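sorry for the late reply, my laptop died twice this morning and i had to redo everyting from scratch. anyway the thing you sent over, i finally got around to it. pasting the sequence first so we're on the same page, its 478 residues, then the predicted structure underneath. double check i copied it right bc i was rushing
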Amino acid sequence: MENRELKKALGGNREFVTVIERICGDDSNLDPTIILKAKDFIAEWFKRVEGVPENLLFGKSHNGWTDEIMAMKYLERNFGPTSTSALKAGGEYRLLLFDGHSSHVNPRFLDYCVENKIIPYCLPPHTTHHLQPLDVSIFGPYKHYYQKQLTYQFENHEYGVSKANFYEILMAARHDSFTASNIYSGFWYTGLIPVDRSVILRKIEHSTAQATALTSTQNPTEHSIQYSQESSPSRLPVENDLPSQPITAFTVQEIDAFQIPSTKSEIKQHESIVHATLPTNDPIPWGLKKIVGNLATCGNRDLTDLEEKKHQIESLQQQLADRKAKKPVNRSRIPVQGKAWINCDDIKTFFASQTTEAHRTAKRKYEAAQQLASTRKVKLVNHTQKREEVQKLEEEGKLPKGRKTGAMLLKEEHHLVELISKADGRVEKLEHHIDELAKNIKSEEREQTVKDTESDEYFDGTGVDATPAPMVVDESVE
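ok and here's the structure:
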């Protein structure tokens, strides 16, 4: 599917999102920083945070771009004294390569680098396509796999990229593109690791030679564009590679039975018949083939549009069904205490607190439901006793006028039984809900205990290879 068709299907409401990426000279990479256009962090965006790297950092700004504050937070988190890169460097200097974005080139950023044994190096303007490893070997596959994820989402009738699913799509694309071999290639083809200046010089010489060759072919002579019968086999495109019978192989009745094609395969079949019928080398038949091919392409695009619209209708119908079902949407704001960023720990802590609060609320509702069920059961006992007394008076003919009859009281009694059944069902449902919340709380507590243990081992040096080695890190904003 063509990109423009996919973009049209996915909608036109778009916002800027900045993703800060970095790779290291030992063929590893550090978790990204994603900066969203937002005033607050909404809980609904992070419901599916499971599976996202622990060190992933989310930021927010009024336009979705990075700034000096976010750049400093990123620097402290990934290159501070307790960071992974610092432990790997083992006290040695680290080289940080970056482009000339204003968030990197400012006194506070550079002072922090100097204080923490980081050598900042800003690449010259208009050279990142040759000198920056991310541009050379990572961003191409990154964009390809991101587009592939969008196509997969489209094919599964999941339209739109929102803040709630962007990082999931990005992480899937990142998993396939940030491979050790791609990272190694990035540093090798920029002449950084191993150091080889001739790599860049050869690329520049090759680019210059290509530009010279292109310039020499931009003004072709009149003779070169004239059609000649002798040169036609090598110059005319061969488009009849599809095996098919020519029109002469069909009877008049079979030709008359041809229907207007309604699928892409039928369009292709009709097109192949034309290609098999017309000669290859003559200019007029070749032109007719070209026209038929254009008509076939137009038909295929129209069918694609119809399929997209059908999928969109199905998606809208599903959204309407979801709205009718009134699926709860968590619009709570995650408290950040004035910060412009949150990480996975902040998100999990917030949802854990929501789970704990939901557990307390469910217990209160459970106790209230139990009390209501008990009250109604007592009322039912009294009501049954009263009905029996009324029925006895009716049998004796002593029931005063204006009082409810036994039949009326029996009807009320049946209604009470229904209410008690509903109350018991609610009690049972709340009891099951409380058990599920309690399991979630215990599971989160166990995960936090394991994480704390791993963190202690990591910063003690027992959980990481802290062999002293200079670390070369490349960073970019895309």
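The chain has a mean pLDDT of 78.
thats about all i looked at so far, will dig more tmrw
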